[in-house]
Amino acid sequence: MSGTGRGSGPPPAAASPAPGSFAAFVRLARVKFLFQSMMVTGFGVTLAVHATGTFSLPWYLVTLAFAWSTHLMTHFCNEYFDLEADRANARPTSWTGGSRVLVDGLLSPATSIGAAFVLLFTSLALIATMPTPPARLLACALTALAWFYTAPPLRLNYRALGEVSCAAVLYGMGPLLAAFLQSGPPCALLLWCTAFVAALQVLRCLIMNLADIEGDTRVGKATLAATLGPRRLTAVYAVGQALLYAGVAALAAAHVLPAPVALAQVLVAPVAAVVVRGLLTGAMEDRVRCDAVTFWASVQLPLTTCATMLGLLADMALGGRPAPALWSSLAGGTTVLFALWLYRAVLSARRAKEPDAAGTAEAAGRERGPRSEALGVPGDGTVPDGGAHGHGPGAAGAPLLSEEREAR
Q: What is the C-alpha separation between 145 and 115, in angstroms, rounded?
């Protein structure tokens, strides 16, 4: 689905696949993001199971196949139509800036758009199997928004509409479709939980587009992040997160939101605090720290859907009406797979960070040494009050660093 596919391949330390190889195609597909759509599907199905007490395995499999097909379609589509912006992006992270497969010439752009069309037709075939006109209409709208996220003539992410359309597709329409195909009613709990994660996704997309802001600006790509600018975006993200979690607490106090669900959602709030701290301390101006910020901003969403799913199942068990055994097993298996993926992702990020951070510090010391000595400061690669990476204590320093870099 849309927007989640703006990540790059493995960290810079990873070996590049051979041109024209299957490994290059896998990197182009960015399969690591499929965990998001897998968790979204489980999230929507669990909301329906919570409401009805029933579960349909065939419709779960159709929903998951459609989610993955549409998600991969969007990745390939974005790679093709965002190629100019990706080429202009000199500072990609592991989660933003494209896969770099087309940028590095490992595969031709025709391969990417060809794969996108194959997956588009696959999604349309799956839509034809859906049982009701409302479900088919919702799936068609989802597919159209995902395609036109970067594709002309709409190019939503070039008109400051990408963040909202991405959230509407992946975390809005995605869970609703999963619930509808399970015959789940549009109850208040379904609507709140869907609105909650969709709003979180808008905030997450702001962070991802902030990381790409320099390359996007060079090619005239007017994302909402570029429109807001770093300072206002930081304020929007921090206030938005605070309001959303305050809403969780208020609904739980009013007994609208089951206590296990509210607790599960609030437990993920520290991840948002990590992202806010990074924004306020100039992390987006440092490649290694920026990579960490985009990682945690991305992980907040599948963590939230996973936690909510477990909270819903716990609420059913505590209420004396446990979920069907088959769905409990599938939900447990999904959670284990996601936990293993998260564990490996965190280890990979740490391994990539250590040598890269050392290389960055060494390069910074060589660059700043002569200038520091001329200023009467030891050439150790640091600046007064700048922290480990030479950044000031607050976000206000970030635009100044950008301006200084451009001036040089």
A: 18
| DSSP string computed for 215-232 | HHHHTT-B-HHHHHHHHH
Q: Highest mean pLDDT range out of 82-91, 354-363, 368-377?
A: 82-91
pLDDT of 263 reads 97
pLDDT tens digit sequence for 347-369:
887 776 665 555 555 544 554 44
pLDDT digits (tens, 9 = 90+) for 176-208: 999 999 987 789 999 999 999 999 999 999 999
- Distance CA(352)–CA(95), nearest Å, equals 13
Chain mean position to CA 163: 11
Count of C-beta atoms within a 10 Å radius of residue 60: 22
The answer to whether residue 366 sits within a structural domain is no
Please indicate, yes or no, if residue 60 is contained in any of the structural domains.
yes
The pTM (predicted TM-score) of the whole model is 0.83
Cα gap 54→6, rounded to integer Å: 36
Is 364 inside a domain boundary?
A: no
Domain range for 34: 22-354+388-397
Residue 222 phi/psi, 5-degree rounding, is -95, 80
Taking alpha carbons only, the member of 99, 10, 11 closest to residue 356 is 11
